Amino acid sequence: MQKFESLTNLNFDRCELLTRIPEVSELPNLEKLSFEDCENLIAVDDSVGFMTKLKILNAKGCTKVMSFPPLNLPSLEELELSYCLSLENFPEILGKMGNIRVLDLLGLSIKDLPVSFHNLTGLHVLHVDCDFLHLNSIALTPALYDLSVGKYKEWKWVNSKDGEEEVVSTVSSNLKWFCLPSCNLNDDFFSAGFTQLTTVISLDLSRSNITFLPECIKEFHHLDDINVSYCKRLEEIRGVPPNLKFLKAIECTSLTSSASRMLLNQVFVLFLMNLI
Prior knowledge:
Number of strands: 17
Oligomer: single chain
Largest sheet: 7 strands, parallel
């Protein structure tokens, strides 16, 4: 490896015979390491997590990798772990990593995110399509403004503390887009944690099992876009945000006539306000 001290890009993509990523500590200038779709890869050397100049780390589609080394990569800008189907845990983030802006966690089966996830201090957009049992508030890092979640088995507003669950006390104050389409949501979603979402401007709860929109949503003064389409159990609209501009409620077949009238009245008021 010492012969390649100046190497900046190391690509093992689709190497069918590769079973292990070797030690790379003697490649101090490495900026990109990619081993996408290495279907027989089962192990990644710990040294991969300590490359000070690494900007891109791509392990997408490594379906047999069960664990990933801890990461302390201050220069990292892109992390790709999607479709690592056997990955059991998200890697620990040992130090502040503020250069990752967008993170897609697609096609994973990990159960939770570690407390150290908040070390991704610059994370703005998190797209999750996993079977997490629950996504703790630690996922809502300080800079996060777009959270999109799909195909969850269950959603809970919880923190983990000594093996017990407690209600979330805070979420990111910068959160603007909150999308949970096709999640197994029910009315428990509107627990204490929901009231922390008063900063959002767009809320997508489509294809869920909720039966009502709570009255407290009147306090969501920034919210102008709600999607509850195909919520076939939705019966009541107890409150409407004061600045709502867009409401999608396609195929809400259980919606009561009184709830429908409330929505129509709100649309009429908004129409008049736009004329002024």
